């Protein structure tokens, strides 16, 4: 069976970008009984960006509640918290020892940080932790631990999945026979119509840019956020170009084909921004309104969320322990039975 795996970092509250780029396609795909799905909360990854323990924990609960509220079937999928799988940091170390430093030098999160420091005239490594530098190796361990074939991600994560593939290949080259590889080489999967969703300012919607629209705002707050989407200065009645517009881009992510055509027409006819934003609100609200209620209810019952995570961890660890046994044998770290 095909194994499909993806994770979401537990910093902040899930936003429309995470929903459209990762959560929605993942839940849809998991309804297909020909695949085994693995979804997890990447809380070790969160420590790279966030050193506020309360926030890390809060975000983990919120993201778990998000997946559950959106209807994830936890009986037929693996849904777990990364830090409950103690084998993951262990495998990360093994992979550290086969991964060339040069590969990590090219990772764009790290390179971006170095470039920013250099541009500011600072020391190149200022405020860069080993956690950030090693981030793709931890991600590789997440992926190969469960033998994932496909990793659905947004475009920003493609490089990391390619690195996971390189690292797995390197490990196999050293420790496995050609006929019987130990680690499965993963492939990324980026949905055709799931481009990077734009945020309020037109850049990629991202927690780090502070331009997000959180997924489960109250109706009032959701409309308020949508109203903040930047638009050009065209007045009602002036024809607008849909393809440069964030309002239209987000519309496309929620609309069916007919609705896309309708909005395109409305733009050509010069729909006012206020009007377009009201329609966008209604469209999004219709899709997520019921899930929002379930989400708010779940957050009042953290023990129920925890129970789901424990159930997932118990299932996942059966597989991760088996994988670690194989890997330990392969590298020569084991005791006599
Ligand atoms: P993270 O938490 O930044 O994002 C989670 C997923 O959401 C996608 N995404 C977006 N898609 C479309 N538009 C956007 N504006 C947008 N913002 C985010 C991301 O591409 C991602 O798919 N390192 C990963 C988490 C991770 C992981 C893994 C993923 C850890 N281990 C193993 C896959 C496999 C991350 O930080 O994603």
Largest sheet: 3 strands, parallel
Head-to-tail CA distance between termini: 32 Å
Overall pLDDT level:
95
Helix content: 55-70%
Please give the CATH architecture of the largest domain. Answer: 3-Layer(aba) Sandwich
Query: Which word captures the global form?
Result: globular
Provide the low-confidence segments as ranges. Answer: none
Number of domains: 2
EC number: 6.1.1.2
Enzyme class: ligase
Pfam families: tRNA-synt_1b
Family: Belongs to the class-I aminoacyl-tRNA synthetase family.
Keywords:
Rossmann fold; Tyrosyl-Transfer RNA Synthetase; 8% strand; binds tryptophanyl-5'AMP; cytoplasm; ATP binding
List the SSEs and their pairings.
Blueprint: E1 2-9, H1 16-30, E2 35-42, H2 43-49, H3 53-69, E3 78-81, H4 87-96, H5 101-105, H6 108-119, H7 130-145, E4 150-152, H8 158-175, E5 187-189, H9 219-227, H10 246-254, H11 257-268, H12 273-299, H13 302-331
Parallel strand pairs: 1-2, 2-3, 4-5
The protein binds tryptophanyl-5'AMP.
What report would you give on this structure?
This protein has 337 residues and is mainly alpha-helical. It has 2 domains: 2-196 and 302-331, Rossmann fold; 216-297, Tyrosyl-Transfer RNA Synthetase, CATH 1.10.240.10. Helix content is 55%, strand content 8%. The protein contains 13 helices and 5 strands. It has helices at 16-30, 43-49, 53-69, 87-96, 101-105, 108-119, 130-145, 158-175, 219-227, 246-254, 257-268, 273-299, 302-331; strands at 2-9, 35-42, 78-81, 150-152, 187-189. The strands form 2 sheets. The chain has a 3-stranded parallel beta sheet with strand order 1-2-3. It has a two-stranded parallel ribbon with strand order 4-5. α3 packs across α12. The longest helix has 30 residues, at 302-331. The radius of gyration is 22 Å and the shape is globular. The two termini are 32 Å apart. The mean pLDDT is 95. Bound molecules: tryptophanyl-5'AMP. Residues 5-9, 17-18, 20-22, 42, 45, 139, 142-143, 151, 153-154, 156-157, 196-197, 204-206 line the site of tryptophanyl-5'AMP. Tryptophanyl-5'AMP (TYM) is lined by residues 5-9, 17-18, 20-22, 42, 45, 139, 142-143, 151, 153-154, 156-157, 196-197, 204-206. Belongs to the class-I aminoacyl-tRNA synthetase family.
């Amino acid at each position: 069976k095909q194994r499909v795996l993806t994770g979401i970092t537990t910093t902040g509250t899930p936003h429309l970008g995470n929903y459209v780029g990762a959560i929605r396609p993942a839940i849809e795909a998991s309804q297909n009984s020909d695949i085994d799905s693995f979804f997890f909360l990447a809380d070790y990854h969160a420590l790279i960006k966030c050193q506020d323990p309360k926030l890390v924990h809060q975000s983990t609960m919120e993201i778990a509640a998000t997946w559950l509220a959106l209807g994830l079937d936890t009986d037929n999928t693996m849904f777990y918290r990364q830090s409950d799988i103690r084998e993951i940091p262990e495998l990360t170390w093994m992979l550290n020892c086969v991964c060339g430093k040069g590969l990590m030098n090219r990772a764009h999160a790290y390179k971006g940080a170095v470039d920013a420091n250099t541009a500011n005239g600072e020391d190149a490594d200022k405020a860069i932790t080993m956690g950030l530098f090693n981030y793709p190796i931890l991600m590789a361990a997440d992926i190969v631990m469960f033998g994932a074939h496909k990793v659905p991600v947004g475009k920003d994560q493609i490089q990391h999945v390619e690195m996971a593939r390189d690292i797995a290949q390197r490990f196999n080259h050293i420790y496995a026979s050609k006929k019987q590889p130990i680690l499965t080489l993963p492939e990324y999967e980026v949905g055709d119509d799931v481009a990077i969703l734009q945020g309020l300012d037109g850049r990629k919607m991202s927690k780090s840019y502070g331009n997000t629209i959180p997924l489960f705002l109250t109706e009032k707050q959701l409309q308020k956020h949508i109203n903040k989407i930047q638009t050009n200065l065209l007045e009602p009645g002036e024809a607008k170009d849909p393809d440069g517009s964030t309002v239209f881009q987000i519309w496309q992510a929620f609309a069916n084909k007919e609705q896309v055509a309708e909005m395109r027409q409305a733009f050509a006819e010069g729909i006012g921004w206020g009007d377009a934003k009201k329609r966008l609100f209604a469209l999004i609200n219709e899709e997520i309104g019921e899930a929002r209620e379930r989400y708010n209810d779940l957050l009042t019952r953290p023990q129920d969320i925890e129970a789901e995570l424990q159930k997932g961890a118990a299932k996942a660890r059966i597989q991760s322990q088996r994988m670690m046994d194989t890997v330990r044998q392969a590298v020569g770290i084991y005791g006599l039975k």
